[in-house]
Design a protein that fits this description.
Aspartate Aminotransferase, domain 2
């Protein structure tokens, strides 16, 4: 992977802000889009735009073929055995809500236990709170160590007989922690628990294979993996999807509607009520082609190098004035570097960095359990992707030095 050629694929990187070339360090929130992906969406609307599955005219049939081809492409991307295990949704948030709602209707009952973790995005917490409130499940959380890893004794204590669902993230969007997915999934299965993996932060950075991961469900978002907003993926084992209740009702998901009863289509269509985001699915397929075309080993190596370099240089530059969160790169740290600079609120930090042309995220990152665990109101987060370079890190460090000097004051 030639990084300079890669950067040329992303036209937004040609922009400047406040008189300085853009340094984009917020890919964990959303990735930038290569020209091939932008063109793919435009091409769909120019040449293929029609509703799917409903028209018998040629244009609708072509759109349907493109939509179903995108389903097949997505299945290959994650190693699914059958394209019918792929459900298109708006993103990871909707995907997790679909699973919580559907399992809540068909599998979970009052008193059943769901286990999550303290490092989850709110998308993998709030939907389960809905079920805690009604029908009354019990919700428990695996805790975090001081260096941002799941506490093994909590996994052993909580993922046991009596746990119905174990739901957890692959990579933390704040701490960069890579969780031991297969180990947790195997333990959940032995305990009689279903397992759900939030892969929103791993899909852009590493090869996913649901067969090797061993989970029952996996969810990710297209916009984080160089695709458009408004498209995401739920994968589930086919036999489980067949057992589950629908998520929404309406057109396309029904078999028969009568005054006294309704019957539903088989998955995935049972979970795709209404007109789907056809353009989003087709464009997602182009994005998956793009990222796999870069080569997973090259992507992973480049991003590991960026994270390790940023981690070392930030510590060297600021010493005890800065705290970095999550495992050290030597233990495994992926995609993000979250930090706090002494005496500077993260929101002030982000605003001042923006003046230097550096786009970075500050806040609780939809992960307030992490903030409470480490006793902070918010953190600043730099997140890296294939188009970032060590020069971007240098720009970040220069800007951080200016911010630190500003708040330190004269003398």
């Amino acid at each position: 992977m030639n990084i300079e050629d890669c950067r040329k694929d992303f036209p937004i990187l040609e922009r400047s802000f406040h008189g300085r070339p853009l340094v984009y360090l917020d890919s964990a929130a959303t990735s930038q889009k290569p020209t091939k992906v932008i063109d793919a969406e435009a091409e769909f609307y120019r040449t293929l735009n029609a509703n799917v599955h409903r028209g018998v005219y040629a244009l609708s049939e072509e759109a349907t073929a493109a939509y179903e081809s995108a389903r097949e492409r997505t299945a290959r991307f994650i190693g699914a055995k059958d394209p019918e295990e792929i459900i298109f949704v708006r993103g990871t948030t909707e995907g997790l809500n679909l699973l919580a709602t559907s399992l809540g209707r068909s599998h979970l009952h009052k008193g059943d236990r769901v286990v999550s973790t303290e490092m989850e995005h709110h998308s993998n917490i709030v939907p389960w709170h809905f079920l805690r409130e009604h029908p009354g499940i019990t919700l428990d959380f695996i805790g975090l160590s001081d260096d941002g890893e799941l506490i093994p004794s909590d996994v052993e204590r909580l993922v046991t007989k009596g746990t119905s669902v174990t739901t957890f993230t692959h990579v933390s969007n704040v701490l960069g922690t890579l969780n031991p997915v297969r180990e947790i999934a195997d333990r959940a299965r032995d305990a009689g628990s279903l397992s759900i993996l939030d892969a929103a932060q791993s899909a852009p950075h590493m090869k996913l294979d649901v067969q090797k991961l061993g989970v029952d469900f996996l969810v990710f978002s297209g916009h984080k993996v160089f695709g458009p907003t408004g498209i995401g993926v739920v994968w589930g084992r086919k036999e489980l999807l067949q057992q589950m209740a629908p998520y929404m009702g309406g057109g396309e998901m029904i078999m028969e509607v009568e005054k006294g009863k309704v019957s539903y289509k088989d998955p995935p269509y049972k979970f795709e009520a209404g007109t789907p985001n056809v353009a989003g699915a087709v464009t997602l397929a182009a994005a998956l082609d793009y990222v796999e075309g870069l080569g997973w080993e090259a992507v992973a190596s480049h991003e590991r190098d960026l994270v390790a370099d940023a981690w070392t240089r930030m510590n060297d530059a600021f010493g005890d004035k800065i705290r970095l969160y999550g495992p050290s790169p030597k233990k495994g740290h992926h995609g993000v570097v979250s930090f706090a600079l002494k005496g500077v609120h993260p929101h002030d930090m982000a605003s001042l960095l923006d003046n230097e042309g550096v786009a970075i995220r500050a806040g609780h990152h939809c992960a307030q359990l992490i903030m409470r665990r480490y006793g902070v109101p918010a953190l600043t987060r730099a997140s890296f992707s294939v188009y970032n370079t060590k020069n971007d890190t240098s720009r970040l460090l220069d800007a951080l030095s200016k911010v630190e000097a500003f708040f330190r004051g004269p003398g």
